[in-house]
Amino acid sequence: MNIVPNTIPESPIMQLHDPLIEKMQISVSIKRDDLLHPIIHGNKWRKLKYNLAAFASSDKSELLTFGGPFSNHLYATAAAGKIFKIPTRAIVRGPFLDESNPTIRFARACGMQLHPVSRIDYRQRHDPSYLEQLHTTYPNAYILEEGGTNKAALKGVNELAVSLPEHDYLLCPTGSGGTLAGLITGHTRKQVLGIAVLKEAQYLVPQINALAPQPICDWRLMTNYHDGGYGRFSSSLWEFCQWMYRTHHLPLEPIYSGKMMYALWQLIEQGYFPAGSQIIAVHTGGLQGKDGLRYRQLINAS
Fold first, then answer.
1. Are the CB atoms for 86 and 62 separated by under 8 Å?
2. Confidence of residue 7 (pLDDT cuts 50, 70, 90)
3. How confident is the model at residue 301 (pLDDT cuts 50, 70, 90)?
4. Three-state DSSP string of 250-301
5. pLDDT in tens, 70-93
6. pLDDT in tens, 180-210
7. Domain boundary assignment for the chain
8. pLDDT tens string 212-258
9. How would CATH label the architecture of 42-148?
């Protein structure tokens, strides 16, 4: 198996021009990691590639990971398995699988073996004794954490941080904390802002500190912009995502990067950033998640 970490060129940076930005005398650019890989989008490729390299150098023969039924990580891991000819399997939050769900259909089409479990069992995914049981049941499996967040993942995100041009503020959506942890250990600018996409996300702070015990810049986890919690969003947020696409040709989904951009816009309106600030927001991809939202009729079909 040949997995070469640096075969994918860097994603482009897009500058936004808007009356609000000009009024506040700042600059805003978007790191378009949604364009980084044609199938394994954004931070999912960043997190996976060094885990794939670690897998390739291990004595394991398959990948095992965890995810909800609409998980971007599940989608990305299944795609990586297909592309690199790696057998994959996933513990899926169930207890039943909807075989019409587009993420489940895609994972099956990629050859991923899916193992639905109850929500109670799924909560054990970080428990050492449960993980030991999985090692016993699947002795040939390289076990990859939910969301792909671990030390190997940080190495890929570090590369994103050091690739960026000069700036004062860097923003990213934050789910499991891996992208934020990677940015604050590969970044030398003023401040990194993680926009938490789930409720009561302060519990992520010690996890981020454990992943990145020696950050090389200031950082903040902003927990008031979750817009209802993980997987939830208001009509105003979705309208904002649609406005961003119509006005700036920036495609967004309302679960991750859409929440980050909505938060960024509110912070700009509130005068959070001093005049002259150079801001970069990382679009972490996940646009395939809109298929699941359409399937559940949470957004329109357009």
1. yes
2. low
3. low
4. CCCCCCCHHHHHHHHHHHHHCCCCCCCCEEEEEECCCCCHHHHHHHCCCCCC
5. 999 999 999 999 999 999 999 999
6. 999 999 877 789 999 999 999 999 999 999 9
7. 13-38+151-295, 42-148
8. 999 999 999 999 999 988 888 999 999 999 999 999 999 999 999 99
9. 3-Layer(aba) Sandwich (3.40)
pTM for this entry: 0.92
- How does strand 13-16 pair with strand 27-32? antiparallel
Residue 3 has pLDDT above 80, yes or no: no
List the one residue out of 123, 133, 128, 21 whose CA is nearest residue 68: 123
Print the SS3 string covering the chain.
CCCCCCCCCCCCEEEECCHHHHHCCCEEEEEEHHHCCCCCCHHHHHHHHHHHHHHHCCCCCEEEEEECCCCHHHHHHHHHHHHHCCCEEEEEECCCCCCCCHHHHHHHHCCCEEEEECHHHHHHHHCHHHHHHHHHHCCCEEECCHHHCCHHHHHHHHHHHHHCCCCCEEEEEECCCHHHHHHHCCCCCCEEEEEECCCCHHHHHHHHHHHCCCCCCEEEEECCCCCCCCCCCCHHHHHHHHHHHHHHCCCCCCCCHHHHHHHHHHHHHCCCCCCCCEEEEEECCCCCHHHHHHHCCCCCCC
- What would the two tokens of residue 13 be? 């940076």
Same fold flag, 13-38+151-295 and 42-148: yes
Task: Note the pLDDT of residue 231.
Answer: 84
And the tokens for 183? 């940015």
Q: Which CATH architecture has domain 13-38+151-295?
A: 3-Layer(aba) Sandwich (3.40)
